[in-house]
Write a structure and sequence with these properties.
13-stranded antiparallel β-sheet; Porin; alpha+beta; 265 residues; 13 strands
């Protein structure tokens, strides 16, 4: 009799254990579905979004050909933009301010040599030199529209269309020099001190306008914060409202991608 009761109690305990496991799994599944809905809702819900984007790129170019032609350039490009947008039914409409900065230093040295007529062992060296520095500073406004297309969980493909306009100032300064030198032919090129040099400085202000279509990815790592990466795109730039003075670009170079941070209010 004791063994029968013990066996019935064991069966009843197993049934309760199975019921508890089933209830725990149901609760866990409900929690996961609720969390997924909440995370997905952070994009589907309407609200204001603050966005900060930027890019910095530095390039150096140099060329040396037999100590005769020398060319070197160093360029620093940077831009930053701050905007406020409104997210409505997976569409983001934004308006912001942008700042553009560029500084380029270019150095060029070209030497021509020839034998002096009547003197086979004397070479005439003619050298021209130019060093130039360009500073660009631009300020303007930008309007954009982005569409949020879900890819996986909190990752979205967000193609964006941008329209911007503003003013850009260009400061150009440099030195131009020339020298002429007669020297014996010793098998190497010789550059003497400048016999003539002039310094110049120019300033110019222009209005700019551009349109750009960019592929982008946006990832929300929390309910309110997200990261955005703008991967180049197709664009057109117009200077001083002159279509003849415009440029069309197809640029997906990672060096010019922009990284952004989003905060959803």
């Amino acid at each position: 009799m004791y063994h029968a009761n013990n066996f019935s109690i064991t069966i009843e305990s197993r049934k309760r254990l199975k019921n508890n496991i089933f209830m725990n799994k149901t609760i866990l599944l409900t929690i996961c579905l609720f969390a997924a809905v909440c995370l997905q809702g952070q994009v589907n819900e309407n609200g204001f979004v603050i966005r900060l984007d930027g890019n910095y790129n530095e390039t150096t170019t140099s060329n040396l050909l037999q100590y005769i032609n020398v060319y070197g350039a160093k360029s620093k490009d940077g831009n930053i933009s701050v905007s406020t947008g409104y997210l409505c039914q997976n569409w983001l409409f934004g308006l912001g301010f942008e700042y553009i900065r560029n500084k380029s230093n270019v150095f060029g040295n070209v030497t021509y040599k020839k034998y002096v007529t009547g003197y086979n062992d004397i070479i005439e060296y003619n050298t021209s030199l130019e060093a130039n520095t360009v500073n660009l500073n631009g300020y303007g406004g930008v309007f954009y529209i982005s569409r949020y297309l879900p890819v996986w969980r909190n990752l979205y493909f967000t193609p964006g269309f941008y329209v911007g306009c503003g003013n850009i100032k260009r400061d150009n300064s440099g030195i131009v020099g020339f020298t002429q030198l007669f020297a014996p032919d010793i098998g190497i090129s010789i550059v003497g001190p400048l016999s003539f040099a002039s310094i110049y400085k120019k300033q110019k202000s222009s209005e700019y306008f551009y349109m750009q279509l960019s592929p982008e990815l946006t990832w929300f790592f929390s309910k309110r914060f997200g990261l955005n990466i703008q991967m180049g795109g197709l664009g057109i730039n117009i200077i001083d409202s002159d279509w003849k003075n415009s440029s069309k670009q197809i640029n997906f170079n990672p060096a010019f991608w922009k990284l952004g941070v989003l905060f959803k209010l």
